[in-house]
Design brief:
It is a single chain. The protein is an alpha/beta fold. It folds into 2 domains: 233 residues, Nucleotidyltransferase, domain 5; 224 residues, Nucleotidyltransferase, domain 5 (2-Layer Sandwich), CATH 3.30.420.40. The protein has 19 helices and 21 strands.
Length: 493
């Protein structure tokens, strides 16, 4: 019997990074996490950085872990991360500084300064990207405003996952799905927006070439082969934006479905053959990010479980040992709809004390504050589900059609209470799974690149054959309707 073909997905999230080995045999994908490591930002001189060198060291440790477990037979490696963040290379190819975290405060107030030069309507017309102060466009303009020496000395800009692919391969390119998150990509021209770089006085010459998802860059660098004991490993750019890879692993058919990638962020949208850029999509702040197989991801970025994660972190500092299972049970026992929040309120972007910020929001909006941690956790989960409903309704109006099913993937689907809330709030069937969608998509896109899998359609069938998928039907939707009216007033005020 032929040995299974093995790939390695290096999946970097806001809290941790993981190396997931994937093998494909007899039409099924088998995954195994072989290394996990923390991703702890570092604050240095009032600036919040990603510790890129430590993360790369852990990625190399992942190769060693694979070699010890499976031997030298590794067909490919691919890296995916979140969007918008980047690193700068000097003329000699070295990394000028650790990449800055998207939650750093350097972009506070920067959007308004950019709009004084280029109106938001014009930026959206050229990019089709949702406005968030953390976008690459605003980060770069902040660096220019602050007279950044790193920007002055930069010869190449690489989006964050491409930094790691470059360190593995030596080839400095940016992958399409990640590049589009920058709000500096022009989908009409299929490349960087010369218009925006010129109008804002930003150096377009530093922007590395854009390659499509599934591009094989080259073989693993010789020095890393010697360190790891591997050889002949292909370095492949999958969908380097984690959501792009996750959507590649959604076992869906037809057109009338939406996807919800649930984690630190919630990304809710549909897969389209071309960007959808018009007055309605601008008014509702939808984004058009690059997808796989020539598609675009028409979606909205929603602040997700970050709010609950930050509450848990604050409570741990107070001495409470609360894992997410305990928090969910406490939430389930709490009274429904006691208070609601708008997850996308700027106050929740990066506060010093998230629970205190929620209390402040409730008082500001004339609501009673949560009485305990369980009720606060419930209010977060209910509010997220109601935000999903609002986004679905906006999307259906823009698309001019109804969506029947929400396919939800990612770590957030482990929270069954949130899944039930989502089905009830949106009054739609929710299909949950797989949990490991990002790693699955990363590996399957590598497999398509090397010819092990024929197409994205075949890849999605493999996912459906490989993992347990749960279907949740809506129930008790009436009580959610009145809560939704309250939520809309909060979110639109």
């Amino acid at each position: 019997m032929a040995k299974p073909v093995r790939y390695l997905a290096l999946d970097l999230g806001a809290e941790s990074g993981r190396a997931v080995s994937g093998s494909i045999a007899r039409g099924k994908l088998t995954l195994e996490e072989i290394h996990r490591f923390p991703n702890i930002p570092v604050k240095l001189m009032d600036t919040l950085h990603w510790d890129a060198l430590r993360l790369f060291c852990e990625m190399k440790n992942s190769l060693l872990a694979f070699r010890r477990k499976y031997g030298p037979g590794l067909a490919g490696i691919g890296v995916d991360t979140w969007g918008v963040d980047f690193g700068l290379l000097a003329e000699d190819g070295s990394l000028l500084a650790n990449p800055v975290h998207y939650r750093d405060h350097r972009t506070d107030g920067i959007m308004e300064k950019v709009f004084e030069i280029v109106p938001r309507e014009e930026i959206y017309r050229h990019t089709g990207i949702q406005f968030m102060q953390l976008n690459t466009l605003f980060q770069l303009f902040a660096m220019k405003q602050q007279n950044s020496s790193a920007l002055k000395n930069a010869r190449t800009l690489l989006m964050l996952p491409s930094i790691f692919l470059y360190l593995f391969s030596g080839r400095p390119v940016n992958e399409f799905t990640e590049s589009t998150t920058s709000q500096l990509f022009d989908p009409a021209r299929g490349t960087w927006s010369e218009f925006l770089f010129r109008k804002l006085g930003l150096p377009m010459e530093i922007m590395a070439e854009i390659v499509p998802p599934g591009t094989e860059l080259c073989e693993l660098r010789k020095d890393i082969c010697e360190e790891s004991g591997l050889s002949g490993v292909r370095v492949i750019a999958p969908g380097t934006h984690d959501t792009a890879s996750a959507i590649a692993a959604i076992p869906a058919e037809g057109k009338n479905w939406a996807y919800l990638s649930s984690g630190t962020w919630s990304l809710l949208g549909v897969e389209l053959e071309k960007p959808l850029i018009n007055d309605a999509s601008l008014r509702h702040n939808f984004t058009n990010e690059g997808g796989i197989a020539g598609t675009f991801r028409f979606l909205k970025n929603i602040t997700g479980l970050w709010i609950l994660q930050e509450c848990r972190r604050a409570w741990e500092k107070q001495g409470a040992n609360l894992d997410y299972t305990k928090l969910t049970k406490m939430a389930q026992k709490s009274s429904p709809f006691a208070c609601l929040i708008n997850p996308d309120d700027p106050a929740f972007l990066n506060p010093a004390d998230m629970p205190a910020e929620i209390v402040k929001f409730c008082k500001k909006t004339g609501q009673k504050a949560p009485v305990d941690r369980g009720s606060m956790a419930r209010s977060i989960l209910e509010s997220l589900a109601l935000k999903y409903r609002q986004t679905i309704e906006e999307m259906e109006k823009i698309l001019g059609r109804k969506l029947e099913t929400i396919h939800t993937v990612g770590g957030g689907i482990k929270n069954k209470l949130l899944i039930n809330f989502t089905a009830n709030a949106c009054n739609k069937r929710v299909v949950a799974g797989p949990v490991e969608a990002t790693a699955s998509g990363n590996i399957l896109l590598q497999a398509i690149s090397t010819g092990t899998v024929a197409s994205i359609s075949e890849a999605r069938k493999i996912v459906g054959n490989s993992f347990d998928i749960a279907v949740v039907e809506p129930e008790k939707t009436g009580e959610w309707d009145s809560a939704y009216q309250r939520f809309r007033k909060l979110s639109e005020s």
